[in-house]
Amino acid sequence: MRDSSLTGVMVVVGVLAAASAFGWWHRRRDGRLRAVGPPSGPAADPELPAALGIRPGVVTLVQFSSAFCAPCRAARRVLDAVRETLPGVHLVEVDVERHLDAVRELDVWRTPTVLVVDTAGRVVRRAAGVPDRQELIGVVTPLLTGADR
């Protein structure tokens, strides 16, 4: 009997340790801006950038969101703060339900997803979750000054 109760405790401890490790990993990754390897156009469809409101020659932050997404409101506040801090940044919010073709084309799996699009129309960074304001400013500033990432 003693062995079976010890086994149960070990299973519970193992599950708690695995859940804690996953939670830590997810929290560290959520909202981080990741480089998009080799910079690509917003999509294979040449009309998609204009349909989303991406203007050529302007650094654009594109947020994919949905009506019932609470983190989307927090991401919008962060993006608004970045736009107020850095003049010249254009902000576009895309409703995932209305633009399913863009969601598929740009491989958006969750909301909010934020794309940083440079002046050439290339997606250079992306974040799934609410991005950090300072990290976003650090990524966008060189794009505004014409410096490469």
UniProtKB/TrEMBL annotation:
It comes from the Bacteria. InterPro entries: Thioredoxin-like_sf, Thioredoxin_domain. CDD domains: TRX_family (cd02947). SUPFAM superfamilies: Thioredoxin-like. PROSITE patterns: THIOREDOXIN_2 (PS51352). The chain crosses the membrane at residues 6-25. Residues 37-145 form the Thioredoxin domain. Keywords: Membrane, Transmembrane, Transmembrane helix. This is Thioredoxin family protein. It comes from Micromonospora cathayae.
